[in-house]
Amino acid sequence: MTELCKEGAWAVGLASISEVSGNVLEVFYPSPTLGLHGAPNELIRAAGHDVSSGTVEIHGHHAAELGAAELGAAARTDDLRGVRTVCVLTVIEDCSAPPADAYDAYLRLQLSSHRLAPPGTLNFDGVFGTLANVVWTDAGACDVEGFTQTRMRFMASGRSLQVRSVDKFPRMTDYVVPDGIRIADADRVRLGAHLARGTTVMHEGFVNFNAGTLGESMVEGRISAGVCVGAGSDIGGGASLMGTLSGGGTEQISVGEGCLIGANAGIGISLGDNCIVEAGLYVTAGTIVTSSDGKQRKARELNGASGILFRRNSMTGAVEAIERGGDWGELNPDLHDN
Ligand SMILES: CC(C)(COP(=O)(O)OP(=O)(O)OC[C@H]1O[C@@H](n2cnc3c(N)ncnc32)[C@H](O)[C@@H]1OP(=O)(O)O)[C@@H](O)C(=O)NCCC(=O)NCCS
């Protein structure tokens, strides 16, 4: 089980606050820092704030002193959207404690997408309760409450308004574009995803928050929240990686290095290194598998094992777990030189 990070974190950000409900709709932190070294406590205390943890609104000139002058310039009231944007400083005392509010949650999501904390190392317990449901438009975040009036204000000013989604999480690329990756469809990667260099996410791929890859990988299937995929692994088209050990468990699953999850396959147990799951086979924790020696057991007993080929015997219908050596051809390097 991955250990939670007990470090703190801080960042200067630009928060969008609804004038209708007062909800924090989203917060953009361009340069989050993990660890409280260099936290600008002195400066902020001098401005009369206490920032040992939590969020304070800061003036544009303070944002400039903290290296984020553009955020100060971006702070304004947007009457069309009914949103006020303000500069904030957010400090998290301990990332192993659950997120306290939307500011805290947005900072954790961006720490993850900036690759400062791998999946499973930041506490996201209760994150849904901290986030507002938001109408994500091509003009920015809008409150769900009163959205018809918002649309009419846009119409009255001769502008159209396109809705991309209505969700608690925005897409990652509107906040962070990590280097060395490709994403065919930006809507399929949520803020909080962790994509290592050399990751390619194809159109059918999906990566949730607090989930992702640790090295070069091909993602054509779905990576659920909390799931970590090791370097050199390929998640085939339409494949699905369950969030937790299937059958009511809370243990989060992972995929080791050099694995191939075939097209339309799925797993509800963790895989070690160099495993293959045959195309179309879904291995849940309770699936009875037959090993090469003829022994039958539940797949959960092979949780985390390396060098296994899972396949459904097309003659007998039995699911087999066959020990294997060698490789499956490995990733095509041309596709990961991003
Ligand atoms: C499971 C898988 C890896 C096996 O592929 P392989 O290692 O190349 O194996 P082969 O198909 O050459 O089969 C080897 C032997 O096992 C047998 N075999 C393979 N799958 C079998 C099955 N499900 N049931 C019974 N026998 C099987 C073959 O008939 C063959 O027998 P032989 O040695 O007597 O000729 C492959 O079928 C697979 O599912 N790959 C996933 C590819 C994929 O989806 N990629 C992602 C794209 S988006």
From TrEMBL:
<keyword id="KW-0028">Amino-acid biosynthesis</keyword>
<dbReference type="InterPro" id="IPR038361">
    <property type="entry name" value="THDPS_M_sf"/>
</dbReference>
<dbReference type="GO" id="GO:0008666">
    <property type="term" value="F:2,3,4,5-tetrahydropyridine-2,6-dicarboxylate N-succinyltransferase activity"/>
</dbReference>
<keyword id="KW-0808">Transferase</keyword>
<dbReference type="GO" id="GO:0009085">
    <property type="term" value="P:lysine biosynthetic process"/>
</dbReference>
<dbReference type="InterPro" id="IPR011004">
    <property type="entry name" value="Trimer_LpxA-like_sf"/>
</dbReference>
<dbReference type="InterPro" id="IPR026586">
    <property type="entry name" value="Type2_DapD"/>
</dbReference>
<keyword id="KW-0457">Lysine biosynthesis</keyword>
<feature type="domain" description="2,3,4,5-tetrahydropyridine-2,6-dicarboxylate N-succinyltransferase middle">
    <location>
        <begin position="131"/>
        <end position="171"/>
    </location>
</feature>
<dbReference type="GO" id="GO:0019877">
    <property type="term" value="P:diaminopimelate biosynthetic process"/>
</dbReference>
<dbReference type="Pfam" id="PF14602">
    <property type="entry name" value="Hexapep_2"/>
</dbReference>
<keyword id="KW-0012">Acyltransferase</keyword>
<dbReference type="Pfam" id="PF14789">
    <property type="entry name" value="THDPS_M"/>
</dbReference>
<keyword id="KW-0220">Diaminopimelate biosynthesis</keyword>
<keyword id="KW-0963">Cytoplasm</keyword>
<dbReference type="InterPro" id="IPR032784">
    <property type="entry name" value="THDPS_M"/>
</dbReference>
<dbReference type="InterPro" id="IPR001451">
    <property type="entry name" value="Hexapep"/>
</dbReference>
<protein>
    <submittedName>
        <fullName>Unannotated protein</fullName>
    </submittedName>
</protein>
